[in-house]
């Protein structure tokens, strides 16, 4: 149940996602126009089908109404549809006081404008007929996730606990339970968090005997969990009160296992944790001697909780993309790598070291204290790198070629899988052919997925940069049309265009989408 909590908590920490946070309060509720009585609203798979007339009627009849704005052509909407219907069925079976509906956005432009719908699917939640301030949904795309999000808005988001029996029953039922022990006025903040942290169960109490039972003398949020330390306490500052952001981060950090295995299910949670340093142990899980190393790896982790995330990567599983990213081969396991996900700088131990709790901790400390220099990926320089019209650059020869003071160097940074890179390849080849006899002009390309540079990072593909001759190490970003004529004008004018032409969008590197969130919208 772990794969939903973190993205939601991070929304509360201020991290923006694919979904907005709704409109700002717009004052008192709008007086709804009268609708013809007796008009029947159609249903599809348990979902009300609304339009500009029947939406007002539905708001009058249903005190809690979730509305999906969709487009018939939208792929993400089609993926969501069965889960949305299942959510409606779950809530109906519970007799929950909430109704699910949908609106065909392109067919209802007045409604999409009124509710500021800019992409599909967009889900908005209306309560008590308030048309002016719906809450935009930012939760999971699963039926249970949608249903639980709604349950926590029409019912309690946390269980009121009055005795030890109630506490123990709650703890026995779930892997993780956050219980607020409050005698002061911190309850509202706690319940606000509980509304959106869908993958964690919440309880609260003000009973003195429960404070005593769990060894507490002040207001505290306690995370009880059936793994690792078993319990983590978040004492409330008496002067400042319960801080929502601090509590969210605490739950994010302490809900993570000390060591997390990397796979398609855990990767969203790993990156959502917002712990900047990740220490990776690459092992072959089919080998006993490799599995035994996990004990020492886990032993080293507790002092670094919240600062370094410990991750195990099984080289015998489908993790070749991870190995490639770090420039590793499966045969090199067991080995360690540390990456700062903000700077993307990678670090490796100096030489071959045994994997022990002491060596793992020492490697972490050395990186954190700046005692180990990061490394850069580079392919080997091809023997014929400069034989064709388009020169082949790699990390090892980039500086020498790009910053040659006697050359004007135009470089395409590409990814082998990038469709836009493939589309512009003929124009780039033609450009190189056109200028192949110009001794002071070099047309080159570099696979940015396999080579890293000290000077700058490449985040989108294709990225085009011009390095004019001279000692200044100047770099000019090319942002115009990707065709032979415009490329030629750019080179002939020394790295600028007389008139800036429309910019084409770059093809961004793919990002792993968290399965627990609704994911991207399709723009209007």
UniProtKB/TrEMBL annotation:
Single annotated GO MF: protein disulfide isomerase activity
Record-linked SUPFAM superfamilies: Thioredoxin-like
Biased composition (Basic and acidic residues): 497-506
Region (Disordered): 20-42, 490-524
InterPro entries associated with the record: Prot_disulphide_isomerase, Thioredoxin-like_sf, Thioredoxin_CS, Thioredoxin_domain
A Pfam family it matches: Thioredoxin
Signal peptide: 1-20
Subcellular location per the Swiss-Prot or TrEMBL entry: Endoplasmic reticulum lumen
Entry keyword annotation includes Nuclease: no
EC number of this enzyme: 5.3.4.1
Disulfide bonds: 74-77, 418-421
GO biological process: protein folding; response to endoplasmic reticulum stress
Superkingdom, natural source: Eukaryota
Thioredoxin domain span: 29-155, 352-496
Reaction catalysed by this enzyme: Catalyzes the rearrangement of -S-S- bonds in proteins
Keywords: Chaperone, Disulfide bond, Endoplasmic reticulum, Glycoprotein, Isomerase, Lipid-binding, Redox-active center, Repeat, Signal, Steroid-binding
Biological role: Acts as an intracellular estrogen-binding protein. May be involved in modulating cellular levels and biological functions of estrogens in the pancreas. May act as a chaperone that inhibits aggregation of misfolded proteins.
Recorded family membership: Belongs to the protein disulfide isomerase family.
Protein name from the UniProt record: Protein disulfide-isomerase A2
Gene: Pdia2
């Amino acid at each position: 149940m772990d794969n939903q909590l973190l993205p939601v908590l991070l929304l509360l920490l201020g991290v923006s996602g694919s979904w907005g946070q709704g409109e700002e309060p717009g004052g008192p509720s709008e007086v709804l126009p009268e609708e013809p009585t007796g008009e029947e609203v159609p249903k599809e798979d348990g979902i009300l089908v609304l339009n500009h007339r029947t939406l007002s009627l539905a708001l009058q009849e249903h005190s809690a109404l979730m509305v999906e704005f969709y487009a018939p052509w939208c792929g993400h909407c089609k993926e969501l549809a069965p889960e949305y219907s299942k959510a409606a069925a779950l809530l109906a079976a519970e007799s929950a006081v909430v109704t699910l509906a949908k609106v065909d956005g392109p067919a209802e432009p007045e409604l999409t404008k009124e509710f500021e719908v800019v992409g599909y699917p967009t889900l908005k939640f209306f309560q008590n007929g308030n048309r002016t301030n719906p809450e935009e949904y930012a939760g999971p795309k699963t039926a249970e996730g949608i249903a639980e999000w709604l349950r926590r808005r029409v019912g309690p988001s946390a269980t009121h606990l009055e005795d030890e029996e109630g506490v123990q029953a709650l703890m026995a039922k779930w892997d993780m339970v956050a219980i607020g022990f409050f005698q002061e006025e911190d309850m509202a903040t706690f319940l606000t968090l509980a509304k959106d942290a869908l993958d964690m169960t919440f309880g609260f109490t003000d009973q003195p005997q429960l404070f005593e039972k769990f060894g507490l003398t002040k207001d505290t949020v306690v995370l009880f969990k059936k793994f690792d330390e078993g319990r983590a306490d978040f004492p409330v500052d008496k002067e400042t009160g319960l801080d929502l952001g601090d509590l969210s981060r605490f739950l994010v950090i302490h809900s993570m296992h000390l060591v997390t295995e990397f796979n398609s299910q855990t990767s969203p949670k790993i990156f959502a944790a917002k712990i900047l340093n990740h220490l990776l142990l690459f092992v072959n899980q089919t080998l006993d001697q490799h599995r035994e190393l996990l004990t020492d790896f886990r032993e080293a982790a507790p002092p670094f909780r919240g600062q370094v995330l410990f991750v195990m990567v099984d080289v015998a599983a489908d993790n070749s993309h991870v190995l490639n990213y770090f420039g590793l081969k499966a045969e090199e396991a067991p080995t360690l790598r540390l990456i700062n996900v903000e700077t993307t700088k990678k670090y490796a131990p100096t030489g071959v070291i045994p994997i022990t709790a002491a060596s793992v901790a020492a490697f972490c400390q050395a990186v954190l204290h700046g005692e180990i220099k990061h490394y850069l990926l580079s392919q080997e320089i091809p023997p014929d790198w400069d034989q064709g019209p388009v020169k082949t650059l790699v990390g090892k020869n980039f500086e020498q070629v790009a910053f040659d003071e006697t050359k004007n160097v135009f470089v395409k940074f590409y990814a082998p899988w990038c469709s836009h890179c493939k589309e512009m390849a003929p124009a780039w080849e033609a450009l190189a052919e056109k200028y192949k006899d110009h001794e002071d002009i070099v047309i080159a390309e570099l696979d940015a997925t396999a080579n890293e540079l000290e000077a700058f990072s490449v985040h989108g593909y294709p990225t085009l940069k011009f390095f004019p001759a001279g000692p200044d190490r100047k770099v000019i970003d090319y942002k115009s049309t990707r065709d032979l004529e415009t490329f030629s004008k750019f080179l002939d004018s020394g790295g600028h265009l007389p008139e800036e032409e429309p910019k084409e969008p770059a093809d961004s590197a793919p990002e792993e989408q968290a399965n627990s969130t609704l994911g991207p919208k399709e723009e209007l």
